[in-house]
Amino acid sequence: MRSLLAPGGELFIHAAHPFSSCLDFDGDRIIYGYFDDRYEHLVVFSSRTYTDGVDVAPSTMYEWNHSLSGILSVLCAQGLMIDSLLEHDWTVFQQFPWLTESSPGYWVVPSERPRITLSFTPLAHRLD
Question: How far apart are CA 77 and CA 33, in angstroms?
């Protein structure tokens, strides 16, 4: 990542929060570990992309959960300075069946459920 940024250049990421990735597909129970474990991965068989839900040929995907501290530590180790970190109670896809679309492309926790973090956005810049 660092090599793609000019000195002083900024990196902005918006991604699913690692906590929400611990929940089952219904979003009701914690069934996956939060902390990165190289030997623990999720195998998903799907005919849709995970990024935008486009139909594709059925395939097998392997996913690993990375903790928030693990993600930020990698950015720092690459010579980036973390400027801010925001956690959001919304996401840009219907990760769980009970999420409601508050406006086009924004999915939120309905008022009758506890608010949880669904996504996060760190902002960092290259130091040199």
Answer: 24
